[in-house]
Specification:
Blueprint: E1 2-6, H1 9-19, E2 26-30, E3 33-40, E4 43-49, E5 55-58, E6 62-66, E7 70-74, E8 80-82, E9 105-107, H2 116-120, E10 125-128, H3 131-143, E11 146-150, H4 155-169, E12 177-179, H5 187-195, H6 202-231, H7 263-277, H8 316-323
Parallel strand pairs: 1-4, 1-11, 11-12
Antiparallel strand pairs: 2-3, 3-4, 5-10, 6-7, 6-9, 7-8
Helix pairs in contact: 4-6
Length: 353
């Protein structure tokens, strides 16, 4: 049996539909997780989705110090994880026994200001985020002859596939594993990807994991600091992160001279440029009123007529002088004078007799 590991359930279902020899794939469940069974060239296949990341990065509870080993942390399984704490930070024994200080290290689980410098240099562990899916993945891996990682073709997808493969290796370390890369869930793309399997790109997966670690370190340290600052009376609780924290400075500009010299277009371009010019914080003279808006009952009179060209933007001196003047009179419809003589007949027609 070949096991296909997709990133989401909908992708696992679509892959099964596109690769199946004939008929629809058979829907099945392993524990409470949906899987899809089908045949390719008479061979049994099964596909399943992962629901995204199945492992979540986190910090250990504490960092310990030993004169021979230096700074390190221990996982639940007793694995030693070295910590790159710089020499400038204080080492045990400490003069105080209050938290977060320990007899042989420092507790970084609690939100204490003194632990923040150590948190920056703490090793990172990965805990199961989808225990049920990991259980199903390991169950199917024990029965499979080959596993095909078919997660999305990007950095995140490569990391998700790498984490899934690491979980499989815990129960089936010798199971052959390949990678199917496709850019769209369509017949041609998927068929071509599974016909030309490649190796999983661990460098690309490591790049995704590095970004994941930066998100954790940046967000955890700054969020804890801002929250502790709130407890000290410096504002409300805030959160920080790699994406949400940076502040961007931006501005807009427009060049009205780039528009064609048409009264209709020029008037509009000036109207667009003025709000942009007035968006700065510097005081701007108030624009004098030029025309009054026509009542709704008279708007039909001007249909089809191009608007009159707008006068240039007034200077400060001109604006001050215009404030004291009365507003221009209301625009009125120019009636065509009636002809004093009857209109001459059309030259292409003969006059009626």
């Amino acid at each position: 049996m070949k096991l296909v590991v997709a990133e989401k359930n909908i992708a696992a279902q679509k892959i099964a539909q596109l690769l199946a020899d004939a008929g629809a794939p058979k829907n099945d469940k392993v524990y409470n997780t949906q899987v899809y069974r089908f045949k390719v060239d008479g061979e049994d296949w099964v596909s399943m989705g992962l629901a995204g990341h199945i492992l979540a990065p986190d910090f250990p509870d504490e960092i310990l110090f030993d004169k021979k080993m230096g700074w390190y942390s221990l996982t639940e399984d007793g694995e030693v994880l070295p910590a790159g704490v710089p020499d400038g930070l204080a080492r045990p024994p400490y003069d105080t026994k209050r938290k977060p200080f320990l007899a042989n290290g420092i507790n970084i689980k609690g939100w204490k200001v003194e632990s923040l410098p150590y948190l920056t240099w703490s090793p990172i562990i990965k805990n199961p985020a989808e225990k049920e899916i990991i259980r199903v993945l390991k169950n199917l891996a024990k029965k499979a002859d080959e596993v095909i990682i078919a997660t999305d073709f990007d950095r995140e997808g490569e990391l998700i596939g790498s984490d899934a493969l690491n979980m499989i290796r815990e129960v089936a370390p010798e199971l052959p594993a390949r990678r199917a890369r496709y850019s769209a869930l369509i017949k041609g793309e998927v068929t071509e990807a599974f016909a030309n399997l490649v190796e999983l790109d661990q460098d690309l997966a490591d790049a995704g994991e590095s970004r994941q670690y930066i998100d954790l370190i940046w967000g955890a340290v700054l969020t804890r600091y801002l929250t502790l600052a709130k407890f000290g009376g410096f504002g409300n609780v805030r959160s920080a992160g790699r994406v949400q924290t940076p502040t961007l400075a931006w501005w807009s500009s427009a060049n009205a001279s780039a528009w064609p010299s048409c009264p209709r277009i020029t008037g509009r371009s000036e109207g667009l440029a003025r709000p942009l010019a007035r968006s700065s914080r510097s005081p701007t003279p108030r624009r004098a009123s030029r025309t009054r808006r026509l009542p709704r009952r008279r708007t039909h009179m001007l249909r089809g007529r191009p608007p009159a060209p707008s006068p240039p933007w007034p200077s400060a001196a001109a604006s001050n002088s215009l404030r004291c003047r009365s507003t221009p009179p209301r625009c009125r419809r120019q009636r065509r004078p009636r002809a004093s003589a009857p209109r001459a007949p059309c030259a292409s027609r003969s006059p009626s007799t």
